[in-house]
Amino acid sequence: MKLHGYWRSSATWRVRIALAYKGIEHEYIPVNIIRDGGEQHLDTYGAVNPMRQVPVLEIEVGGAPLRLAQSLAIIEFLDERFPTPRLLPEDRYLRARTRQLAEIINAGIQPFQNLGTSLHLREAFGVDDKTFSHRYIERGLAAFQAVAEETAGRYCVGDEVSMADACLVPQLYASRRFGVDVSPYPTLLRIEEACMLLPAFQAAHPDRQPDAPKQ
Amino acid sequence: MKLHGYWRSSATWRVRIALAYKGIEHEYIPVNIIRDGGEQHLDTYGAVNPMRQVPVLEIEVGGAPLRLAQSLAIIEFLDERFPTPRLLPEDRYLRARTRQLAEIINAGIQPFQNLGTSLHLREAFGVDDKTFSHRYIERGLAAFQAVAEETAGRYCVGDEVSMADACLVPQLYASRRFGVDVSPYPTLLRIEEACMLLPAFQAAHPDRQPDAPKQ
């Protein structure tokens, strides 16, 4: 199993959390999405993922490589293939809530703070992409907190780690990096703190990846 | 079961397809996202969905209302609760591919063509939102087609309708409405044609909804 990713990509980080939490051995293939306009735009990467994004999980099925993209689709696959410890709760309603929370970040925040979006808005339209992304990060974190408050225990959904936590932790890091004040989200900060006590979340941190710049 | 939605919302339409395909009885609660700046911004709607978006599926759990948002989370819930006919294939790899395809539209296109995004880009930054959204629609449809070509039969994933089809049909309608040339995507047009022969897809069409303007 191979993971194509980038150390600071939030979506890659979500999948790294899932792999580490489940203890799944894999090879890491760094894709530098910054250098020379981004290696994801090389001809060869188009066959790996036509959307030219990271992460991609590459597995072998019947002797041929199968390349899966979209972080939540990858995490759902890993949870079906390696069910223990699970990242989606057993209860049907809590599973639905977990997916709702994950999508608030995946579809409700990430597209607007994405490096490609920011560059395009800045270069093609002269938009202050920081002002633009802040609006969506703040709206999303406020909604995430409001929804999570119904289910939160130690983590987003009760006392078991879920896919929602795997989305939240990278999102809070990205929010700070982009200069968003995260103090209005105390419930989310408390959950982040609980997650960061776990070895899987520590191992998945960007600074611990082989393609992170040396300090 | 109640569906809060808007006749022309792509995300609502995806859920309507799932409900119709599975033959699930429900009440439809129109939310006019245009009139007076949008009913989703009324105080009362904040309790229905803190993200202030449609669709929301409202169900009763233990006598209390449970409100689920995010179209893909809702469809996954419906597929678990009402497994026949299924909208996610039985095969683990095809399930993953179905989710990947759905996310290309849900997270890769929809956020960029969304009414709220278009209005904000136009009003706050003077951006030509049509030029902006076309870029993401075209990138997404091209990637969707490239990925779907590996699995497509009569529908996106083999010969059974899936969540990917429930995302594709509303996306093609929206693409045309926004003036995108869809002729470079013959595989997708062929699948759309096959879907539109099915009564469930016909019943879910925006023009057939009670809140659609009278012709």
Textual characterization of the structure:
The structure is a homodimer of 215-residue chains. With 215 residues, chain A is of the alpha+beta class. Chain A folds into two domains: 2-84, Glutaredoxin, CATH 3.40.30; 92-200, Glutathione S-transferase Yfyf (Class Pi), Chain A, domain 2 (Up-down Bundle), CATH 1.20.1050.10. Chain A has ten helices and four strands. In chain A, a hairpin with a 2-residue loop joins strand 3 and strand 4. In chain A, helix 4 (92-106) runs antiparallel to helix 7. The mean pLDDT of chain A is 97. Chains A and B meet through strand 4, helix 3, helix 4, helix 5 and helix 6 of A and strand 4, helix 3, helix 4, helix 5 and helix 6 of B.
Features:
215 residues, alpha+beta, Glutaredoxin, Glutathione S-transferase Yfyf (Class Pi), Chain A, domain 2, 4 strands, Maleylacetoacetate isomerase (chains A, B), GST_Zeta (chains A, B), maleylacetoacetate isomerase activity (chains A, B), glutathione transferase activity (chains A, B)
